[in-house]
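Intended use. Records like the one below are meant for learning the mapping from a protein sequence to its folded structure. Do not use them to infer anything beyond what is encoded.
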Amino acid sequence: MKLSVIIPVYNEKNSIEEIVKRVHATGLADEIILVDDGSVDGTRDILPSLDGRDGVRVILHEKNQGKGGALRTGMNAAQGEIMLIQDADLEYDPRDYPALLKPLDEGLADVVYGSRFLGGPRRVAMFWHMIANYMLTFMTNILYDTILTDMETGYKVFRRKVVDGMPIHAKRFDFEPEFTAKVLKRRYRIYEVPISFNPRDYTEGKKIKLKDAFEAVWTLLKYRFVD
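Structure written out for the chain above:
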C-alpha cells in the first residue's frame, strides 16, 4: 500500500533537511508532503531545493493556519492508502516506521499511535509536560471508554478510509484530541506501539504551550457530544 508521509512545517530551517533525509532513509515513504505553514525564519529558502526530489511535494500556506490547518492541507493532498503524520522537529524518529506500520500490514488496526509511554527509549526532560500528557490521555479514556497511553502523540498512522468524510476543524494542536475523539466515536480499531522520543524544550523551539492543554480539554469535551 502506498504510504504518504505528511510533515507540517513552521520555522524549522535547522531541521527540515534532516527530517526529510531520515524519512527517505527508511525506504518506506512513497511520497513526502511538506506543508509550510507560513514560516518566516528562512525555512522557505530551503524548500525549493527539496520540492520534486525523490517523491517530495511542497505546499505553501501564505498565512499561518496552525498545525491543524497544515495537516488538513496535507491529508487532502495525500495520494497514499496509508497516511503517516511526522513532525519536522526531530522529536520523533522515522526508524520507528516499521513498528508503526506493522499492525496495519497485518490487518490488526485502522489507526496506529506511537506511544511515548510504553517503554521505548526517550530523552529525560520536561516533567510537567509529561504530567499534562498523562492527564489529557486519562481524560480521553474516561470520556471515550478506552485505554490509550498517549493520546497526544505526534505519531499517528491511519488508513485513508479513516479520514475520508471526517470533518476536521482543528487549527492548532487541538488536532490530536479532535482526531482521537472522532476515531474513537467511529469505532475504528486503534493499536499502540512503543516509540523512541527526543523532546525539545522551549529554549530549543518547542511550540506547544500550556494554553494548548486547556484547548485540548475543551476539544475532548466538545466532541464527546457533537461530531
